[in-house]
Amino acid sequence: MIIADPKPFGQVKEYIKDYKRVLVVGCGTCVTVCLSGGEAEVQLLASGLRIALGKNGKNPVILEGTVQRQCDEEFVVPVLDRVRDERIDAVVTLACGVGVNFLADRLGSVPVFPGVDTTFYGASAGQGLWAELCAGCGNCITAYTGGICPIARCSKHLLNGPCGGSEKGRCEVAPNSIDCVWQLIYDRLKKLGRLSELQNLLPAKDWRTASDGGVRRSVREYLQEPK
Amino acid sequence: MSDNNGFKSGSNLERVLRAGHFAVTCECGPPKGADVEHLEKKINLVKGCVDAANVTDNQTAVVRMSSIGASAILVRNGVEPVMQMVTRDRNRIAAQSDIFGASALGIRNMLCLTGDHQTFGNHPMAKNVFDLDSIQLLDMVRIIRDEGKVNSGDPVEGGIKMFLGAAANPFADPFEFRVIRLAKKISAGADFVQTQCIYDMDRFRQFMKMACDMGLDKKCFILAGLTPLKSAGMAAYMNKNVAGISIPDSVIQRIRGAQKGKQAEEGIRFLIEQIQEVKEIPGIAGVHIMAIEWEDRVREIAERAGLLPRPAIEA
Amino acid sequence: MDKECPQVSAGEILATCSAACPVHTDTREYVQRISRGDYEGALDILLEVNPFPSVCGRICHHPCESECRRKTIDTAVSLRMLKRFVVENTREYRVSRQKKPAERKQGAVAIVGSGPSGLTAARDLALMGYRVSVYEKDTKLGGMLAHAIPRYRLPADALMEDIQDILATGIEVRTGCEVGRDITFQELRKDHDAVLIAVGLAESHSLPIPGTESSGVFLGIPFLWDIANGLRPELGGRTLVVGGGNVAIDIARAAKRLGTSKVYMACLEKREEMPAWQWEIDEAQEEGIEILNSWGPKAILAENGNVSGIEFRRCTRVFDEEHRFSPLYDDSETTQVDVDSVILAIGQKACLDCVSESPVTVDRGRLQCDRSSMATSERGVFACGEVMTGPGSAIQAVATGHDAARVIAHFLQTGETLKIAPRAVQTIGDLPAETAARAKRFERVEVSLTDPAVRIGDFSPIEPGFSEMEALKESRRCLACATGAYLESEAVCAGCLTCVRVCPFGVAKVDRTAVMPAQQCQTCGLCAAECPAAGIALSRFATNKMREKLREMLAGTVAEKISRPFVVSYCCLNETTSREFLREQTEAEIRETGILRVMVPCVGRLSALDLVSPFELGADKLAVLACKEEGCFYTGAEGLLRRRIARAKKFLDEIGVGQESLQLFNTEGSAEQSWPRIWAQLRSAAPDDEVIAAQAAAGGDSR
Ligand SMILES: Cc1cc2nc3c(=O)[nH]c(=O)nc-3n(C[C@H](O)[C@H](O)[C@H](O)COP(=O)(O)OP(=O)(O)OC[C@H]3O[C@@H](n4cnc5c(N)ncnc54)[C@H](O)[C@@H]3O)c2cc1C
Ligand code: SF4
Ligand code: SF4
User: Fold this and answer.
1) Residue nearest atom 26 of ligand 1, based on CA coordinates
2) Does the N-terminal or the C-terminal CB of chain B have fewer CB atoms within 10 Å?
């Protein structure tokens, strides 16, 4: 899942302070799950904006809405319709960056502003906590690392073992919060009886499948309309 | 693609080690700017006391004069550099091009490192690179040197001569993995290894035993890293705050127990004892003395440890 | 007033308490209304289905309590006492809401007998618009309630309250008129379109043993009847009551109150088999009544025609394998008790003399009657109450009275009989033990009965009612079963598991989308407060409804005229000990005091939005008045609320309102003592300069 954090309120306020009719639109998928951009956040942000801008003597109309996903045309069309029908002059989206782009590509002359900071692909690591688990490198190497990704979870993305900063299972970059992923990999491979594989050298990675190879697309020809 | 007589680069350090001498290296940190005079002063302090001096690459992620530039100045001043290179700041394109440049400037030793994370330095906001890790860097340089191919497989025009070093930290975790990692570095191309500073001699002996059991001491030269303690306060601080360094309480107590104003002297005395101790450890080929911002005491240390004069071996 | 949760009233699924009640009183609703200080509303709920709430508040055997789901946690909610509290505290209101029939309909009904069943049917039919005449042979109305149940349990004025309410519907009453003697059954039929026989079980069974004709032998019902009518039957120093049911206990306890020094009860059953309620047995024993179990009377002994004792033989078994009454005796084991009087309380039977000269069929002493259509052998003649069902409870009699009214109305309209299908009652089921284990325990509020030594002195009531504080406290023990959280729309649920993680009771689950099984939900509302999709609704005290109401209240000009600083105060209503703060505020009150109270059963359910939006509506300050520290019903709610408030404070700083505008307080002592102090403190603090500046900047109309 994509993880995002709410943007500092002041930033969002600054983006929209000169608009008259603003739509705050949430996304019902990843950002709802990670508590940053669902309907509840939409309502809270909208209320906050009304209060804060009201204090500045501005009283813009702040409208609210949430759609199931902002990364699919069919779900986004109602937002576009609202923008047109309700003469909205700016949109704040609480979807991840994907949603911001998706709307920007479709909103014509109406500006869209991000309401969250999109951070990583991660998973719930307990109540109110999410952790980065994958970096989307496009060529998964976890088969060699016990299913644990050193690219996403090592502060230095090391592929051949821990640096000298691994101490008591923690990463020197933030010993209180980050596990040394190489300790995890070591422990896991030990459990799997595959420790010897650690002696193999993982060669320099081909990063073309990651964003370094240019903007990526994913294709399922069998579903594409023939050209 | 090494010399006829089997030398990788024929550097002084390599020759000393090959000749079976107990090698001595030290550290020579570049200035936080282009202050050549300051650097030359440091160079002169260590000249003649060591077989080569490590030139750090933006150590602890604090911006300094580049290690290539500083290493070239060492060459100019007659002290052999061990140019350090970290993968934090340069991708494989920049790294390879820098290595060519270094070789062209007469640099013959390099130490391949991953580098401290930028959050520890003065530019925590920087984007890091880590296109490679230190092992992959070693591997890449070895292939350039031995097979004449850059990472992509393209041929190299005119070979490089480089004695390749790596760092080893016997004190970080997971402990059992540390020797495996050393072995990996050696098979990737490390000709010599300098260790993290040693205070816990027992654990170091254990590490060396494991390394020797795997025959690693036969495949590469292992230099024991040592750092003199200036005071008990410094010792305690390092113990607590530097990941991968552990200083036994007994050592801190010993420094603390020294008379007022005599803690530094006690630190040096302890270091000299350590040098004698590591000499006796099977598989140790030399010492790497990291007298951080204490270059002026390197001569004294080498002197008192009986490491002087340094052997001069014909190329 | 709308019920707060339609799940019980409209739907088919009942809380177990309501399901157990013969008339399906919406128990949860009235208890919840009490907890909100709406005693009048609670009375409305009681009277919906039960014309005898006052009687039931005193003597109902309360099957609701026996089935209350709170039992799984600690003890049942004291429902009967709560009911009694309601009637005792709404007397004027009750008179004011008395109803008259809306329209008059064709049709006259004669009802024989004024017990609870007869009067219930009379009231229902009268309210439907029919002409109803009740014939009662006694001078007082109420049947056994008036003549048999001793006054220490049911005072006459309590019964009177119910009866007066019933009479207000315009029923015609003929007391002192015994059908079959003062008027013939056939005359009744001639004058009415339908006749309802509700004569109850007025006669006591006697025993087929020697000695029953001796002086000093009494029959139970006539004995009680006399007492109820102010007579004091002559008992000797020692009395023995034969019987082990509730009636026997009433008789024994009444005998005690007549000054008899020694009272025994003897019955066939073992202690644990006795049909009397445990609490009745306990109270009787407290009063010094000695119970002799497993003895069958063999003969009443007499000297000179006066009772001198009674002889028993051992009863070895009362019921056979199929639980039918079939006693076995061991004649070799006998005993004799020396007493001066014997009262027989071994069961009642109907006196059907009233129909003896009519074609209505009586079969072996029992009125022939079809239970589902309540019809007797004669067209237009119906029966209800104990004469039809056999011995039972007052509220069961009431239930049959309602049914009788329905079948009779149907008959009057169509000339046909109506078969009432037994109502299929579906309950929400028991509270699962694992949920109960996580719930906090709260002691049931108990009242202490008059000291036994004192109470046997006369027939004064022995049980005090709840004080307001006690009633409020006890009402909050109700789990408000099945009024909890539910997913409003599956479409918005992202399956994020937040509800699962915050639910203190392990109730919420995600099965594709969130589910909070009504059977388990403890109604704390924590999941709704944290749901990121704002998709969980609460059946009661939904905070979105509260917000709407706030918005409504502050709309228009009201907000402008409010005395500043204007404090919105969310209050945990569980802390109140009176109605003072539970009452709805008037607009003027809010304007003048500058305080708007929003009562919530637990402030833990307030969402971050609830903690911010009042400022949008014009509040200067927001106070959250929580319960006493560690006092919350819901495990974990306090911590969550504190963290939510910390978050809201941070947000308030960011939006320029300032975190000091939101404050959390714990009630100290009672709400009535604590809250006014808090409000005064909040209001006296200097008004926020920034707010004033902002108001000025906005031309004063930004609010
Ligand atoms: C001692 C005792 C204690 C009880 N305690 C409880 C208790 O604690 N809780 C509880 O829920 N229930 C209790 N009950 C049961 C309850 O009182 C009865 O279930 C209920 O009263 C039955 O109502 P009913 O309408 O069928 O008949 P009844 O109440 O018996 O009323 C019948 C009425 O018909 C009248 N009548 C009879 N024949 C004629 C006639 N020919 N003409 C005119 N009028 C006639 C009688 O005078 C009487 O008033 C108790 C009963 C007794 C006897
Ligand atoms: S807790 Fe309340 S609603 Fe639930 S069974 Fe008991 S009285 Fe009824
Ligand atoms: S959190 Fe509370 S309201 Fe929600 S399901 Fe659990 S018990 Fe019910």
Assistant:
1) C385
2) C
